[in-house]
Amino acid sequence: MSQWLTLSRAAHLIGVPRATLQKMIAEGRLPAFDGQVSAEDLTRLFPEVRLDEAGAFERITQIKEQAFGRRVRERLLPNQEVLAQRLAAQSEELEEVRRTLAHYHDLIEALREKIETLAHESPAAQLDELARFLDEGLAGVLSREEPADQVAVMDNVLRVMAAHVKVKPSNHEFFVEGNETILSAAVRSGLSPSYGCGNGNCGLCKARIVSGQIRQVHPYDYPLSASERAQGYALLCSHTAVTDLVIEMLEAASPEDIPEQQIVAKVRSIAPLAPDVQLLHLVTPRTNRLRFLAGQRVTLSVSGQTASFRADYPIASCPCDDRNLLFHIARDEEDEFARYLFAGALKAGDAVSVFGPWGRCVLAADSGRDHVFLACDTGFAPVKSLIEHAIAADVPGSLRLYWAATGPAGHYLENQCRAWADAIETFHYTTLAAATPQEAGAAAAREALAAGDIARCECYLAGPAAFVAAAQAALAAAGLPAAQLHTEEL
Q: Comparing C-alpha atoms, which of 467, 459, 478, 451 is closest to residue 404?
């Protein structure tokens, strides 16, 4: 009997985006039942998946950068206690299967004896035929030599290396790998759980464990009541998963679900991306990280020797790395913060106050539609955050980027786009050049419209106001519903 796997687990094993499997199901190439696929069909469609002699899992050709074999080699294994508990849980399941098979064997033997008894009491050709059928069937089963289903074998080992977590009520899924906490795994996987300090003091990451076993890996001070403990509540920042879990967890579904925060971060580095664009890298304290949704912006404030400077900038990094905040800051004589930065007054180790987050240009991850991104100049910053979040969350549908440049800075991170295109088969990008933001908006919209039915897509526009206005007008005229348009003006 073939082993059935959820799409999330199957994609994790094979090393392809979930969208690839969904496309294969829609095309009729991959059979599915109740949202699951069989290991046998996966082995048939991905014959290059194999178990090598050293025991690590590899794909001959990696479709995605973080394929299964690479994750096994590079990530830390669970600690000895968690690994022992997972092996014990699998041993219990194996023993249960063995007991069930033994019962079936006893039943078959009893049936064979019953047939012989009935045949002696009242001979009948039908009973003799049934006896021969049973003997031949048993002989066929016992003599069968089938190779192991490699995907099923990989899944069994994956359950030792990583625990699968299903979230209620959203039905989102993720994996807890190595020694990481459940909270860290959820954030790394592109989810937006409720949390605050991340070190067991605030209690905001409290969630109910519906089924499965967990283990405390970090101390915590937040006092859970006796009633909460009895109902299965635990702090996700202080526990890891021992077995597969089902949990009830609060998630941010919209910008209104993210509270306004004030954090003092430190400058880790300042580096040029282009002659007129600087990369500002801030690091938040371990005990006070910034919660935000991909595509949002914050207010940065710094105090110089004679004055304070502040400005709003979109975050260019993914929420899955909540301690490292990246910003693409263009040279602008009307922007006091940018002048302060380009003058070299801001140094590594300096404190920068971060307020926010703000903005509604966030990813519609559960829409099921394709995602189209139109960016102009440093409008690439929030788009980068959105795309990285889409990749981390393995959102369904394709990802298409149209990046227009109007100045000498050009496409200052085209190598990043190229890396995405090489690693993610559902990602495609086009670079454009234009004299003005307005022309850039019209050109980007034309390219997006030429690629397919825009009314079936979620569209994200980021750049100068003239760029956003021109692209928005063209897309709306082509039939894009307003609810599927998300904008961020710089």
A: 467
Cα–Cα distances (Å) from 355 to 87, 198, 205, 299, 332, in that order, read 46, 19, 22, 5, 21
What is the pLDDT at residue 39?
A: 81
DSSP SS3 for 138:
helix
- For 66-70, 304-308, 318-322, which range has the lowest pLDDT when averaged over its residues? 66-70
Cα 257 to chain centroid distance, Å, stands at 20
For residue 16, give every residue at least 6 positions away whose Cβ sits within 8 Å of its Cβ, in sequence order, or none.
63, 64, 425
Q: How many CB atoms lie within 10 A of CB 228?
A: 14
- Homologous superfamily (CATH) of 159-255 is Beta-grasp domain (3.10.20.30)
Indicate whether this model's pTM tops 0.85.
Answer: no
Handedness of CA 238, 249, 185, 82 (dihedral sign): positive
CATH of domain 370-489: 3.40.50.80
* 483 Cβ neighbours under 8 A, 6+ residues apart: none
Which CATH superfamily groups domain 259-358?
Translation factors (2.40.30.10)
Q: Coil, strand or helix: which one is 170? A: coil
